[in-house]
User: Which sequence fits this backbone?
């Protein structure tokens, strides 16, 4: 603790150019990521698929995949610039101190009696700031969903559903965010310089609570979970779970097709009580053995303790963030660089600290992607040992066609951005060799959507 305090005192230097450093890194990161995107864009202009996929992917499908990739890249250039302009405007025009003062006036004039103090002020500031940023980004979200995704046949949502989801998300953010943010601030206020220990324990408790409550109270607000019907698929999945001694409690099908043609499968729950969720689109577009093969990969993550290891790493990362924040929380030079000269709110300190920590977070992201890709290869190998090599390869190819996913990638771009290996790498590791000159035409003609989300296969 003394080391952290001395480190904090060392960093708190009057006139230290925090604002210039943070802006400088933001510019560097934007330019660097733009450079990587340009490298990837050249890959997306290639006329032929990688040799590994030449016997699997029809030229028409490859061309469409490349076009989709270029469209996303072009959108990324524009939306990234839009985001940078927002950040620069926020800093240059001192939006944070002005909004803090404005919400303080609102609190003084309009708040109920007893609703005062830093926590009350922070809640009004935070949700006002969130409402503003959400509103500013609505055009980007709308274009992505109803123009870009719709152009390639991906979007299944409607404007009504999109708006409804937006309001549900905001309401949920207030209902859950208000008590969590209040507890976060109260812990820091009441526990002194050792607050990061208590925040760490609080963070673990919140995660365990979320694991328990999310599928029960939150997920049903957006999607419908139905028990998987009796049949070959249920028998196959239950047999796989029994074979691996996976503590399966229930099997669900989720109506992913309500919004998109995503194809995915995942499990959740406490260590002794797990639930498997399969997207309806995955069931619709795959053979029974292919779905079981996909789940053999997913359960491979569990059997090889990948999920436990990632959870442990996440806890270490959380502790390191909170501990380092304790060295910044009283850094007056950081506050003053961004226009806070009289008040030094905790939430503002955390926001600015997060900006200052961004370079380190970039390094952490790179290392986590490397580890994640390693885990994906291991989970594929696990499925091979279970005898699902062929079925998993077929499923990956089919999903690649349905998703119009990137068929190839620049190595620098993939190292920085991708948490999963690209398909040619995975097929090579699976030892797959094509038995046909072209992929099954039915797969190419199936719903040409299915954008991979969350933890991909």
Assistant:
């Amino acid at each position: 603790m003394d080391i952290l305090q001395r480190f904090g005192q060392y960093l708190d230097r009057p006139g230290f150019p925090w604002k210039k450093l943070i802006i400088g890194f933001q510019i560097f990161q934007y330019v660097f990521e733009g450079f990587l995107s340009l490298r990837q864009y050249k890959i997306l202009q290639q006329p032929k698929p990688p040799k590994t996929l030449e016997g699997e992917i029809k030229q028409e499908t490859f061309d469409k995949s490349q076009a989709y990739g270029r469209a996303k890249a072009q959108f990324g250039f524009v939306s990234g610039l839009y985001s940078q302009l927002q950040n620069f405007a926020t800093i240059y025009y001192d939006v944070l101190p002005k909004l803090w003062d404005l919400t303080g006036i609102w609190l003084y004039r309009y708040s109920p009696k007893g609703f005062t103090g830093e926590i009350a002020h922070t809640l009004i500031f935070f949700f006002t700031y969130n409402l503003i940023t959400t509103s500013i980004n609505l055009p980007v979200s709308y274009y992505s969903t109803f123009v870009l995704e719709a152009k390639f046949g991906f979007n299944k949502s409607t404007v009504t559903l999109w708006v409804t989801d937006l309001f549900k998300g905001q309401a949920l953010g207030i209902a859950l965010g208000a008590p969590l943010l209040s507890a976060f601030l109260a812990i820091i206020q009441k526990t002194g310089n050792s607050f990061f220990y208590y925040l760490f324990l609080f963070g673990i408790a919140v995660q365990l609570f979320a694991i328990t409550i999310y599928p029960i109270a939150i997920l049903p607000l957006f999607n419908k979970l139905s028990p998987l019907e009796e049949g070959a698929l249920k028998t196959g999945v239950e047999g796989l779970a029994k074979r691996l001694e996976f503590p399966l409690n229930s099997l669900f099908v989720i109506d992913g097709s309500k919004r998109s043609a995503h194809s995915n499968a995942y499990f959740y729950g406490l260590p002794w009580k797990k639930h498997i969720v399969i997207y309806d689109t995955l069931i619709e577009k795959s053979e029974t053995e292919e779905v079981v093969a996909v789940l053999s990969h997913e359960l491979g993550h569990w059997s090889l303790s990948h999920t436990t290891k990632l959870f442990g790493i996440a806890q270490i990362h959380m502790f390191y963030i909170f501990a380092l924040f304790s060295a910044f929380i009283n850094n007056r030079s950081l506050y003053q660089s961004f226009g806070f000269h009289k008040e030094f709110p905790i939430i503002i300190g955390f926001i600015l600290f997060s900006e200052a920590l961004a370079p380190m977070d970039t390094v952490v992201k790179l290392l986590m992607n490397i580890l994640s890709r390693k885990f994906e290869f291991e989970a594929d190998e696990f499925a091979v040992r279970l005898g699902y090599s062929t079925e998993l390869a077929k499923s990956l190819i089919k999903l690649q066609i349905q998703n119009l996913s990137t068929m190839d990638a620049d190595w620098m771009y993939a190292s920085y951005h991708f948490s999963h290996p690209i398909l040619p790498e995975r097929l090579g590791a699976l030892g797959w060799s094509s038995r046909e000159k072209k992929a099954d035409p039915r797969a190419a003609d199936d719903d040409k959507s299915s954008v991979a989300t969350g933890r991909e296969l």
About this structure: Residues 436-456 have pLDDT under 50 and may be disordered. Strands lie at 225-227, 248-254, 265-270, 273-279. DSSP finds 19 helices and four strands in the chain.
